[in-house]
Amino acid sequence: MYQYETLEAGKLQLQISGDGSRIIWSARELPLENREQADFWRCHMDDGYYRSMTIRSSKQKGTAEKFKDEIIISYPQLTGDDGRVFDVKLKIHIKAAVHTYESLEMWAEAENQSGARLNELQLPFVELSSIASLEREKDIYYKMNGLGEKIINPWETLKKSHSEYMAADYNEIWNVVQYPCDAAMCWSGVESGGHFLYVGRHDNQFRSATLAAGLNPRGSGKRMILSISNYMLVQPGERLESAHSVISLNEGDWRTGSDIYGNWARGNWYSVPEKPEWVQDMPGWQRIILRHQYGEVFFRYGDLPRIYEEGMKYGLNTLLVFGWWKGRFDNGYPRYEADPELGGEQGLKDAIAQVRQMGGHVALYTNGVLIDITTDYYQETGREICRKDIDLNEYREHYQFSNDGMLLRSYGYKSFVSACQATEQWQEKLLENGRTKLSFGPDSIFYDQMGGHLPKICFDETHKHGKRGDTEAKWRIENMDAIVRLCGPEVAYGTEQCVDAFAPHVHYHHGCQYGNFYGETAFPDMFLRTFPEPIMSDRFLHDDREDFKRILNYSFAYGFRFDVSIYRGRKSIISDLPDYAAYVKKLLELKKMYRDFFYRGRFVCRHTPVLPEKVRMTQYENADRQILLVLWNDSDIPAEFTVCGQTVKLASQAVTCLPWKG
User: Fold this and answer.
1) pTM score, two decimals?
2) How many whole angstroms separate alpha carbon 646 and alpha carbon 220?
3) Which of 58, 507, 622, 652 is geometrically suited to a Cys-Cys bond with 275, CB 3.0 to 4.6 A?
4) In a 10 Å sphere around its CB, with 0-12 CB exposed, 13-18 middle and 19+ buried, how is residue 636 labelled?
C-alpha cells in the first residue's frame, strides 16, 4: 500500500505517493479521476543516437515531502522505458497557490550528470479518465490553435490526430500546437459538467513550448491528457529550472481560464503599446503586389494614388505594398532597393507623398525572417546566423507561387533559410532595411513574419541564445523594440501574426492564424477576450467566391480589419469585384456608426442570451461601459428572435448591431 501526501486547490485534489510513482486526481462532488498508473510528468532524453528516450513518472522511485502548501518530489536518478538509468536528479515542485482562482502551480529543477541531454519535460501532465461529467460527449476542449479553437467531444474528435504510427500512437494519440505561434497564448482547457479545467504555462520569458492534448490508443480504456512540453535542453553538467505552470478547476466556462491567464499576464508583463492615432481607426487595407515572385509587373509606383482612390470609395484608407523592390517579391531577401522599372526612388517617394496628401496611408513591406539562399548575403552572413535544427542543418522553406505554367506550380521556385533573431547581424539588417523604407516617407514599415513565423527551436550554440535555443523570443522582442524606436511616434510598426508575448511591441498585426479567418471550429473569443487591444486583420479571402459574405461577416463580428487582397494581391484591386466591394463598404459603414465600440472599445463576453441555432453573437464595450451586441445569422434561412426585449429579424447571412439593454 502507498502512503500519500495531499494538496488541495478549491475542489481539485492531488495525492502523491511517498515514492513519487503514483498519483490520485479527484475533485469534490465530481467524477474526476485517473487510472492507477497515470503519469503526472514525463521527460525525454537524447544521447545523440537514441534521440527520444521516454521516462515516465509512474516508473520512478523518489521521495515526496510536504512543506505547508507545497509538495517536493525528489528523484535521485531516472529510469527509461528500456531500463536505462540516467544520472539525472529531478525535483518536481507542486504548490497550492492563488492565480485568480485556487490553483496548483508546478515547476521542476533538473541536474544532469548523465551522458545524454534532457531535451524535454512534459509538466504538467494531467492524465484523466473523466473530468467533471461522465457524459464525456458533452465535454469541450478549448485549444489554443491560433487565436482559439472550440472542439466538441474531444474524446472522439481528437482521434483524427492519429499519425498512423509516424509517432508512438500505440501509447497515446496526440494533438499539438506550438507556442509562441501558432498558439497565440500558452493555455488551454476542457469545459466539463459546468466546470473548466485550466492548464497554462506562466512564463514571462516566453520559452518555446508545445501544448498537447492526448487520448488513449485505439481499442483501450478512455483517458485524456493535457500537457505542456518544456524544451529545457539540459546538457550534461547543467542544472536548470523549468517554467512554472498552473492547473485550476473551477465552476464556470472557458472564461475562467481567460481570467487566470489574462490576470497573470497583466500583472507581470503585458502592456498596451502606444501607437499612431490613425492605426487605431484603420478600417483595413488593400494589399497589393507590384512585381510578383515570378517576375510579372502588376502595378507601378505611379499606380498607388489611383489604387488608393478606388479603395476609399469603399472605406479603405490604407495600402499595404508588397513586391516594391528591385528583385521581385519573395526574392533577394534581405536586400531591398527601389526598382527603376517600377518608377525608381523618386517615383516611389512621390507616389507615397501623393497618397498621404490625399489623406491615405502607406505601409511598405520587407520580410523580418527569411533569407534568400541565392544571395551574397546568405553566402557571406546568412548561413552563419540562420536557425539550425537538432542535427545543425538549416531549416529551409520552399515557396511554390507561379503563373499559368506547371513547372513552378509543381516543383517550386524559391528556397529560404530563416534568420535567428538572437544574432547581432540580423538586428543590424532589420534596422538597415527599416531605414531604407523610412527614406521613402511611408506611414508604416511592415516586417513580415516577425510576429510569429514557424515556431522552430534554434540549436546553433554560437548565437546569443547559446544552449538555450528555446529562448529566441527574448531577442525577437529586443529587435521589435529597436524597430519601434526607429519608427518614432509618427510611424507605425506592423508585422504578420499575433502572439501575446509580442503584442506589446507591435502596433498592428496582419492576421494569419486559425481564428483570423472563418472556420467551423474557430473560436477567436479565447484570445480577443483575454487581450482585446491588439489590432488585427482577417486573412485568406481573395475573391468574390460563393461564401464571401459569410467570411466578411465573420471578420466584421470579430472586429478584424479587412485585408482586401484581390487574387492574393495580384492583377486586380477592390473595384474590380463590385459585389464584394459593395459589401465591404456596407460593413465598414456599419462599423463607423458604432466606432466607439469597434475602434475605440474592446471585445468582451458578458451576456449569454438564448439565440437560435446558427445565429452568432459577439459583444463590444465602449469607454462608457455600454455594451453593443453584434448579431449574425450564419444560416441559409431567415431568423427571427428576441434579444433585450426587442424582436430581431435577420435574413440569411445578414448582420446587425444592437445596444444591450439589460
Assistant:
1) 0.97
2) 52
3) 507
4) exposed
SS percent in the chain: helix, strand, coil, step 5: 25, 35, 40
Neighbouring C-beta atoms of residue 359, cutoff 10 Å: 10
Torsion sign across C-alpha atoms 321, 324, 330, 335: negative
Residue 1 has pLDDT above 80, yes or no: no
3-class SS string, 423-455: CHHHHHHHHHHHHHHHCCCCCEEEEECCCCCCC
The pLDDT of residue 54 is above 70: yes
User: Coil, strand, or helix at residue 589?
Assistant: helix
Instruction: Return the sign of the alpha-carbon dihedral for residues 601, 603, 608, 611.
Output: positive
Mean pLDDT of 495-507: 98
User: Considering only CA atoms, which of 572, 495, 504 is closest in space to residue 537?
Assistant: 495
* Coil, helix or strand at residue 353: helix
- Cα radius of gyration (the chain): 26
In the chain the domains, ranked by start, together with CATH numbers, are 4-268 (2.70.98.10), 277-593 (3.20.20.70), 604-659 (no CATH)
Tell me the three cell numbers of residue 525. Answer: 473569443
At 384, phi and psi to the nearest 5? -85, -35
At 111-163, the pLDDT tens digits run 999 999 999 999 999 999 999 999 999 999 999 999 999 999 999 999 999 99
635: its cell numbers: 444560416
